[in-house]
Write a structure and sequence with these properties.
The protein is α/β, with parallel strands linked by helices. The chain contains 7 helices and 16 strands. It starts with 10 loop residues before the first helix and ends in a 6-residue tail after the last strand.
Length: 340
């Protein structure tokens, strides 16, 4: 059983974490690549040589990896249920093609220098509601770490502080604004600074774009915003009836895949610098099936009896649309609904 960091971390991993925490300032968080807003011209050319490299850092390999959810803002129970079911589906059986197949056939294939593969088991180990907007309704990127700190030191029910097997997800409601949300990113992942939270742990933030920019962060469930980069196919019906939440599923899958393969920004990515890494989901942005990518096309996906679009099945009868990811064996974007 692997861990993000061993219970007695090696000097190499400790040095990597310390160097990252010291050399990357809070202002640099804004420079680290997140899940970008949708652009029809953003997609990586399928014929382009992609130099995906391993940079000797750890991957998220704890089995299970404990997910701690922080619901920031005012959330409806129905929306929360969709996201919980998606997270449960990552490591639970479901009819093929399943969310767990999507995870097993791409992120799970990445490993660290010890041979430990990315985890195939997730457990929602704790949840915290921050319905009082403890840090306001407009957040800077560094404020997301303060939100995590507030949750792990909350009274009387704090979230566990789990530096060995934990990852933290900050999920913001539609009325919460975050730096660069809708303008450049739909979500991002990083690691906490010990000076803020007390330990170094991976985390991700994803926002609900339903009222702020559905055409940028909930595409293809809303009309794509114009970026001058070619057309986009018709709006698809969301599989769970909520464009904002179904769009969050896409972004959440994107960030979980990248957080798991590059948690300290020193593991798997393409490019020359960790401050602007091109990660395994960035390479396949906007591709959901065969034929996706060209001119903003989503690709071939399935249709449920009610007409909603999906490409994977989850627990409790749920269906989801997830983007394809870079497969290290095939050297191409790939998903379980591929005809190949």
């Amino acid at each position: 059983m692997g861990r993000l960091l061993p219970r007695h971390p090696s000097p190499l991993l400790l040095a990597a974490a310390a160097a990252a925490a010291i050399c990357i300032s809070s202002s640099s968080i804004a420079a680290v690549r997140g899940a970008p807003v949708y652009r029809a011209d953003y997609l990586v050319d399928g014929n382009q040589l992609v130099d995906m490299q391993y940079h000797m850092g750890p991957v998220v390999s704890g089995s299970p990896t404990n997910l701690y959810l922080i619901w920031y803002g005012r959330w409806e129970a129905a929306a929360q249920a969709v996201l919980r079911d998606f997270l449960a589906s990552l490591s639970a059986p479901a009819p093929f093609p399943a969310v767990s197949d999507w995870w097993a056939h791409t992120p799970r294939m990445y490993a660290d220098q010890t041979g430990a593969n990315v985890t195939g088991a997730f457990a929602v180990a704790g949840e915290h509601s921050d319905a009082g907007y403890s840090h306001g309704a407009s957040l800077r990127r560094i404020d997301v770490q303060s939100v995590i700190r507030s949750a792990v030191y909350a009274y009387p029910d704090p979230l566990p502080l789990d530096p060995y097997n934990g990852a933290y997800l900050v999920l913001t409601s539609p009325d919460v604004q975050v730096d660069e949300f809708c303008r450049a990113v739909c979500g991002f992942h990083y690691f906490t600074f010990a000076s803020v939270v007390g330990v170094t742990v991976p985390y991700a933030w994803v926002g609900n774009s339903a009222t702020q920019c559905p055409g940028k962060c909930a595409y293809p469930f809303a009309a794509a915003a114009e970026y001058g980069g070619g057309g986009a196919q018709a709006v698809l019906r969301p599989p769970n009836g909520d464009a904002g939440v179904d769009g969050m599923v896409i972004v959440l899958g994107h960030e979980l895949a990248e957080m798991s393969t590059n948690p300290l920004v020193n593991a798997w990515y393409a490019g020359d610098t960790p401050t602007a890494p091109t990660e395994i989901a960035d390479l396949c942005l906007g591709v959901y099936g065969d034929g996706g990518g060209a001119g903003g096309l989503v690709g071939n996906v399935s249709r449920a009896p009610d007409g909603s679009a999906y490409n994977v099945n989850g627990v409790n009868g749920r269906r989801f649309l997830v983007q394809w990811l870079w497969n290290p064996v095939r050297g191409a974007c790939y998903g379980p609904n591929s005809s190949n």
